[in-house]
Write a structure and sequence with these properties.
Elements lengths: L11 H11 L11 E4 L4 H17 L5 E4 L2 H6 L7 E4 L2 E5 L5 H12 L2
Parallel strand pairs: 1-2
Antiparallel strand pairs: 1-3, 3-4
């Protein structure tokens, strides 16, 4: 298991971002889009397939991005993969969602 320790910063904007991340308000500056975060393992690929099926049923015609770089994954505040990000917001992490679960989360974020 790997742990990362950061020095405490006096910058209030950084502290607010860290508090939001800890409270479940994980966001990234990367903006709109649907992403699967994970190293490419079987669980990550299974989540990717479920999300693609959910997007198809919802009529979402955009590319699903699979982020495999650990630095980019960590930028979302995610330490357990696979994870699902919808429009910059982490909506699930640490579990393989079924198609209907992914569909519900995507619809909720996008108000579909």
């Amino acid at each position: 298991m790997v742990f990362f320790f950061n020095k405490k910063k006096d910058d209030k904007s950084s502290a607010n971002h860290n508090a939001e991340t800890a409270a479940g308000g994980q966001t990234s500056e990367s903006g709109a889009g649907i992403k699967v975060l994970g190293t490419g393992c079987a669980k990550c690929r299974a989540l990717e397939q479920a999300v693609q099926a959910a997007m198809l049923e919802l009529g979402i015609n955009e590319e699903l991005e699979h982020v495999t770089d650990f630095v980019n994954i960590a930028a979302y505040g995610v330490m357990t993969t696979p994870a699902l990000v919808v429009d910059g917001k982490v909506v699930s992490y640490g579990k393989v969602l079924q198609k209907d679960e992914a569909k519900t989360l995507i619809a909720k974020v996008r108000d579909l």
